[in-house]
Design brief:
single chain; 470 residues; 2% helix
C-alpha cells in the first residue's frame, strides 16, 4: 500500500505549517514463478535455478518426496544475490519436489511453482557383441546398459566413445550404435575386442570392453538360369550359374540336382570343386530326365562357412512314339500267313528315329528304335530309319511284338517308351469245302468227289465216309 507523508514543526505550544508531501511504501517478498530443477543431469545432486528477486534478502528451500507430500525446509540462503542451489542431500535417483520462498527482511513470501528433480546415478554395467560376416558390414548394434536411472523409470541418454579400436576392420558409431566393417579383402574371420566408454547425460562415465564376432560369409548365388527351359525326355541340358565363395572359406563345391514335384531327387549331380572368389561363372551340363513332367533344377554352393541354393524350373516333354502296325492282323494261322510288323512316324515327330544306336549316341536329339527278339519264323530288317520284321510264324502261341524307344541322356541310352501288340498264331482245323455223292444203282460201287482245306500244322489228313441210314 502506498502512503503520502507530511511533517510539521512543533515549538512549545506552537505548531508550524505542513511540509511538502512525500509518497512512501514498504518492500514485500516476491513469489518466484521460474523455479527449475535438474532431472538426472547432475551426478549425486539436484541443482535448482530461478530468476532472482532484486529485493530478496534470502530464500527458503523446501522439499517434498511427492507432489502432494508435506514439504520440509532443507536450508535458508542468506548470501545475496542468489539464483541457484545444489541439493547434495538427495538419496540415489529418487524424485524430489521443490519449492522456494523469497525473504525480504522479516517477511517471507509465498511458495514458488513446484518442480520435480532427481540426481543422476552412474551406469553400473554395459555390454555389446557386434556380429558381421567377413564380406559385409554388421547391422547397427546397440549397447545394453544397466543404469539406476532407467531401473527407476527415469529417462536417460548415452554417448559412446571408442577408446581402443579392434585390430582388424573398422568400427564406427552410427546413431548411438556400433557398426563394424570387415577388411575389404574378406580374409579375416574370428573374434575381436575393443574398448569403449558409455557417458550418461549426467556426465557419469562407464568404461568397458566390447566384442566383435566376424563370421566367414556363406556362399552366394547371384544368377542361375537355363538356356532351354523345355526339353524332350532324356535330353541333356545346360544350366548357367554366377556365384561367389568368400576367400576365408574352405572346401568349396558346387553341384546341380533335379527334383520332381515331390521334392525327391531324380537326377543327382556330381559335386565340382571350386576355388574361392567373387563373381565366378560355371556352366553345368546335366543328364536328361527320363519321365515327362515339371521339375525343379537346384544349384547348391557349399563350403565350410555355409550353403546357398537357387532354383529354376524345367519342363520335360514326352517324345511322340511311332505307330506299330501288324498285318494281316493280330490272329494268324501257324505256318501259313506272312506276318509283317512295321513302324511309322507319329503325326508330329519331336525326336527323329533311327534304327542305328551309334547315330542316337552321337546325336542326342535322335531316338533309337529297336524291336525285341522276333517270334520263330520272323526276321528283323534294320535297313531304314524305322526297323521292321516279317515272316511266317511256325509255332502256335501268343507273341508280343514290341518296339522299344531309347534316347541318349548325355551318359547312356535310356529307354523312354515302347509300343507293343500281341499276335496270336493258331492251327486251324481242316475244313471240307464240298462233297459230291453220285446217283447209284444198288449194285454199283460209289465214287465220291470231295474238296477240302488243310494246313501243315494239321499233320496227315484222312478222309472217311460213312453211310447214314435214312
Amino acid at each position: 500500500t502506498h502512503y503520502f507523508y507530511t511533517v510539521k514543526t512543533v515549538i512549545g505550544s506552537l505548531v508550524g505549517n505542513a511540509s511538502n508531501e512525500a509518497e512512501g511504501y514498504g518492500k514485500m517478498p516476491a513469489t518466484i514463478a521460474t523455479l527449475t530443477a535438474t532431472q538426472g543431469t547432475q551426478t549425486g545432486k539436484v541443482v535448482l535455478g530461478w530468476t532472482s528477486s532484486p529485493d530478496a534478502t534470502g530464500y527458503e528451500i523446501w522439499r517434498a518426496t511427492s507432489t502432494t507430500g508435506t514439504p520440509s525446509k532443507i536450508t535458508t540462503l542468506t548470501t545475496m544475490p542468489a539464483n541457484s542451489y545444489e541439493d547434495t542431500t538427495v538419496s540415489g535417483v529418487a524424485s524430489y519436489f521443490y519449492t522456494i520462498k523469497t525473504i525480504v527482511g522479516t517477511l517471507t513470501g509465498s511458495a514458488s511453482n513446484q518442480v520435480e528433480g532427481w540426481a543422476n546415478g552412474a551406469p553400473t554395467a554395459a555390454s555389446v557383441t557386434v556380429t558381421a560376416s567377413s564380406t559385409s558390414a554388421s547391422a547397427a548394434t546397440a549397447v545394453t546398459v544397466t543404469d539406476p536411472n532407467v531401473t527407476a523409470g527415469k529417462t536417460e541418454t548415452y554417448t559412446l566413445t571408442i577408446t581402443n579400436p579392434p585390430t582388424a576392420g573398422t568400427l564406427t558409431i552410427v546413431g548411438g550404435k556400433f557398426v563394424y566393417t570387415p577388411p575389404a579383402d574378406g580374409l579375416f574371420s574370428g573374434p575381436l575386442t575393443f574398448d569403449y566408454t558409455v557417458t550418461d547425460k549426467g556426465g557419469a562415465v562407464y568404461a568397458t570392453t566390447g566384442n566383435i564376432n566376424v563370421v566367414c560369409g556363406s556362399p552366394t548365388i547371384t544368377a542361375f538360369t537355363l538356356p532351354l527351359t523345355s526339353v524332350a525326355q532324356a535330353s541333356p541340358f545346360d544350366a548357367n550359374a554366377t556365384y561367389s565363395l568368400p576367400v576365408c572359406s574352405t572346401n568349396g563345391q558346387i553341384k546341380v540336382d533335379i527334383l520332381d514335384s515331390n521334392s525327391v531327387v531324380v537326377v543327382a549331380g556330381t559335386p565340382v570343386t571350386t576355388p574361392n572368389g567373387a563373381g565366378q561363372a560355371h556352366t553345368f551340363t546335366s543328364a536328361g530326365v527320363i519321365a515327362a513332367g515339371s521339375y525343379t533344377v537346384r544349384m547348391t554352393a557349399t563350403s565350410d562357412s555355409g550353403t546357398a541354393t537357387k532354383t529354376a524350373i524345367l519342363t520335360v516333354k514326352a517324345v511322340n512314339l511311332p505307330t506299330l502296325g501288324i498285318s494281316p492282323g493280330l490272329s494268324v494261322t501257324v505256318g501259313e500267313e506272312t506276318v509283317t510288323a512295321t513302324l511309322s512316324n507319329p503325326p508330329a515327330v519331336n525326336c527323329p528315329f533311327t534304327s542305328d544306336p551309334a547315330v542316337a549316341i552321337a546325336d542326342s536329339s535322335q531316338c533309337y528304335v529297336s524291336f525285341n527278339t522276333p517270334p520263330s519264323g520272323m526276321s528283323l530288317d534294320n535297313g531304314g530309319p524305322l526297323p521292321s520284321m516279317s515272316g511266317i510264324i511256325d509255332t502256335a502261341g501268343s507273341y508280343p511284338i514290341t518296339a522299344e524307344i531309347f534316347k541318349h541322356d548325355g551318359t547312356a541310352l535310356q529307354k523312354i517308351g515302347q509300343v507293343s501288340k500281341t499276335v496270336v498264331a493258331a492251327c486251324t482245323a481242316p475244313a471240307v469245302i464240298s462233297f459230291d455223292i453220285p446217283a447209284l444203282l444198288p449194285y454199283e460201287v460209289p465214287n465220291y468227289a470231295s474238296t477240302y482245306k488243310a494246313y501243315s500244322c494239321n499233320g496227315a489228313v484222312r478222309l472217311v465216309t460213312a453211310p447214314r441210314p435214312r
